[in-house]
Design a protein that fits this description.
Layout: E1 10-11, H1 14-20, E2 26-27, E3 38-42, E4 45-49, E5 53-56, E6 59-62, H2 64-70, E7 77-82, E8 88-97, E9 104-106, H3 109-114, E10 123-126
Parallel strand pairs: 1-5, 2-5, 6-8
Antiparallel strand pairs: 3-4, 6-9, 7-8, 7-10
Length: 127
């Protein structure tokens, strides 16, 4: 959960969308206009949101210094090459460079499992 945002958003896996009966688009966190809504039900009650369900776009967080080192810039779209026994290339990976970021690649669980990606996996930016 988190970070705190001005609007409620629900990031789900593509596989979850079939069970939940929603058709979310791949979006960056916070880009919610025109996305499907959903009922969120918990032990203390429920809330209905009119929009806010997305599948998170792959992205890499980094500082501006990291971006300069890798020859990329904030907002750029790159590909990443994953090494390993089931390695491959993921396209459409957004660069998010700002002063408060640490170098970290965010892909979802389904994507990580498909290529056997773990915390120690080697990933290379391909422009």
């Amino acid at each position: 959960l988190g970070p705190l945002r001005s609007k409620t958003q629900v990031e789900i896996l593509r596989g979850d969308s079939f069970k939940l009966g929603v058709a979310p688009e791949v979006r960056m966190s916070g880009d919610l206009h025109g996305t499907p809504g959903i009922a969120i039900i918990g032990s203390k009650g429920s809330v209905q949101i009119k929009e806010g369900v997305i599948v998170a776009q792959r992205h890499i967080h980094m500082t501006p210094a990291d971006a300069q080192h890798f020859g990329v810039h904030d907002g750029q779209t790159v590909s990443i090459k994953v090494d390993g026994p089931r390695g491959g290339i993921y396209n459409n990976v957004a660069i998010r460079a700002n002063d408060t970021s640490a170098l970290e690649c965010h892909i979802d669980t389904e994507e990580a499992n498909a290529m056997c990606v773990g915390n120690s996996s080697k990933i290379t930016i391909v422009k």
